[in-house]
Amino acid sequence: MADLTVSLRGVSRHFGPQIAVEDVSFSLEPGQTVALVGHNGAGKTTLMKLMLGLIRPSGGTLSVLGEDPGSGFGARREIGFLPENVAFNPSLTARELLGFYARLKGARSEVGPLLAQVGLEEAANRRVGTYSKGMRQRLGLAQALLGRPRLLLLDEPTTGLDPSLRLSFYETIRTLGSKGATVLLSSHALGELEQRADRVLIMHRGRLLADGTIGELRRLAELPVRMRLRVNGSWPALEAALPPGTEVTRSDGIVDLACPAPRKMEVIRHLASDGTAVKDMEITPPSLDELYAHFLRGGGE
Amino acid sequence: MNATLAIAGKEIREGLRNRWIVATTLLLGLLALTLSFLGSAPTGSTGARALDVMVVSLSSLTIFLIPLIALLLSHDAVVGEAERGTLLLLLSYPVARWQVILGKFLGHLVILAIATIIGYGAAGLALSFLSGDGFSDGWAAFGRMIANSIGLGAAFLAIGYAVSALARERGVAAGIAIGIWLLFALVYDMVLLGVLVVDQGAVITPPVLNALLLLNPADVYRLLNLAGSEGAALATGMAGLAADSALPAPVLVSAMIGWIVIPLALASMLFSRRQL
Hints:
Chain A is α/β, with parallel strands linked by helices. Helix content of chain A is 32%, strand content 28%.
């Protein structure tokens, strides 16, 4: 178990009477990209601060890169962190700031390449005070990538990034992941996490509600698979013989079906059995948004 | 050590960029010049050299101004970064909290030293040329006064970090800082004087008075300057006090160092306990 990047066992953190994190256990392995999902105040940021050793747990144990993060700061050399709403001193330039952070991590040679990587090369000698939110966010990403981290903690990393930067951001994450870095990212944009996260942790009021790959969570949630069909006149005959448990809504020529996930193939075979009745078909598995809503409603017991 | 120096370097760069260094240098230089030219008129009869007079008038200026500048620089160091959101990121780096305090201290100290040396030094140069004394031995006392001023600034920087690490909000830190400034620069001596007059030497014997003087960094500074310059003591009419005072220079220097080191240690301790 020594090669786990992060391991939490029964970790709690209270701020006075307020419970920020309660009895959370999970572990992260090298190379994993994990999405941390939850509403505001669910404990996502507190978890990241605990892993950085910025606050100590009220109970439970945690180990990050083989060390207790509270006992020293050696492990932080290999952690990249992007806080939510990252802020910089506005009177310095991006190059000066990144140079400063690089010096703290002993990675001064990476400043130029990283500025280029996040597309700030041309603005590097301008004061950060003149930057847009997206540019500050990119500078934030650049500093998190300093020192080739083995663990990246990214709190809402894609806020303020335009679509092309988002793509290149996720590209970077994938490259790091393939080199063995663990990436933990929290986000509200569940849709974009869906394709990119190997695993999802759902937090609610300080507790870990669900933990698994999206596929596993779908199985757990037992949410229906939705299909949208374009049909012709011979549809009613097909509808009458659909497998049980399938819900149907019709509006001229378009049919929406919702069937339990285990019956999906059965339904599809049935639909295809009459050669021409179904002209087109779209299948949508439950999205991360739906899964999240489901677990929040208490679907995960 | 590298992290501490990196933080110090960043503070100096920020000081240059936001004109702190330029502004304080100009302020100190202009005030020093004004004071010394106004104050140089009535020196003829005391036999004091122009620079000695300047040491006296500048120490009075320093007691008010340098602590104020130092507290302005330092009261914001922790709580300001926390409120602007830059502290969280800094502390996620492999840096100990005492290194943050020490780095900021070194950086601010350099800013203060540049302003004091250039500001006072330029005024001193101008005066010694105009008065015709040339480079007399008054410069030794003048140099010591500048060094003492930087020491006084260091003490108030350190006090400011302790305030900054303790306060939850910037406004509170500023309020406490101003209170501390008023206490040490004004109130302490007034109260002490009042008590001395009422007491008539019954409780406050010379050793007690000495101890009380050491409890205020501004008084330590004043005594250090007097101890350093006979001419200056003559000019203030306080030669008697300086001679009476059983506080030799090493004691005063140690007291000043204590006023720097203890608040710095306190600031580091308070900062380590601070919740983010």
